[in-house]
Amino acid sequence: MPKSIVLAVLVAVVAIVGITIAQTTQPATESAADSPAAEAPTTQPAAEAAGETVAEAAAEAKPESKFTAKQDASYALGVMIGFSAMRQQMPVYMDLDEEHLQAGLSDIINDKELRIENQQIMAALQGYLMKWITETTEKNKAEGEKFFAKNGKRAGVITTESGLQYEVVKEGAGATPKPTDIVTVNYKGTLLSGEVFDSSERHGAPAEFPINQVITGWTEGLQLMKEGGKIKLYVPGKLAYAERPDRPGGPFATLIFEVELLKVAAAPPAPATLPFPAQP
Predict the structure, then answer these.
(1) Architecture of domain 144-265
(2) Which residue is catalytic, options 108, 197, 209, 246?
(3) For 228-272, how does the pLDDT look when each residue is reduced to its tens digit (9 = 90+)?
(4) Of 63, 70, 104, 106, which is most buried, counting CB atoms within 10 Å of its CB?
């Protein structure tokens, strides 16, 4: 493959990743500017205050590295390519062969003859992806069925009509959220393997969201709580991310959440709708 095509591919990947990173670092909504944190005075970057150029500031801020600039740049590009591939094209939890993944990247960068034809590339990816989705779906459903049959027999575990299982860790004494309410929670999510895939601690602060805009298992489970309470939710795949292959554990994975309900608040009223003016 010509070097020009290789460079074009790499530039496109960098552009895609740049857009993705920019989107993920923006506030979730414009209303974030109205939060108490927005009232705090912001400080100017040191470079602006001192009249320095951006390049000078970047040079000063760059942490020391035991690698050369070329090695750091090469590694950074590898990270960006991997980020793009895993986050935008292939499910994060899909099992891949790292040795052959690196070999494919190396052959492209070094302009070597590829061991598969160009027209076979997407076929190889799509074929294996469909195989992985089918096998993972069957595996996750079987493991989930076995888990819930056993877990439902434990003392203190309650199974709802939907199949959600939960156990109360601590009773709350405050309000019970309604479907339209906004809640503030601390949480930790794990797979059946015990792997932690997400938590409010990782994000550095409790999460706040309308309970009707999360997975079905959370929407149901939160309405079983009172403010100040703690609960453990055992969410079947059908009440979590269902068939989506790009979510924790893959399609129909059973998810376990430890949830602490810190606050319940009513959603702000919708803006009034003005009637159409009368026709003259």
Answers:
(1) Roll (3.10)
(2) 197
(3) 999 999 999 999 999 998 899 999 999 999 999 999 999 888 776
(4) 104
Question: Quick check: is 215 catalytic?
Answer: yes
- The predicted model scores a pTM of 0.68
Active site residue 198: yes
Does residue 262 contact residue 186 with C-beta atoms inside 8 Å? yes
Q: Mean per-residue pLDDT for 215-237?
A: 97
The domain limits of the chain are 3-35+42-131, 144-265
Tokens of 138: 């069957």
Catalytic residue among 93, 148, 187, 234: 187
The verdict on whether 75 is a catalytic residue reads: no
Which candidate in 211, 241, 252, 256 is catalytic?
A: 241
pLDDT tens digits for range 177-213: 999 999 999 999 999 999 999 999 999 999 999 999 9
**Which is the catalytic residue, given 93, 148, 166, 257?**
257
Asked if the model's pLDDT at residue 277 lies above 80, the reply is: no
- The catalytically annotated residue of 109, 209, 215, 246 is 215
Q: Is 257 a catalytic residue?
A: yes
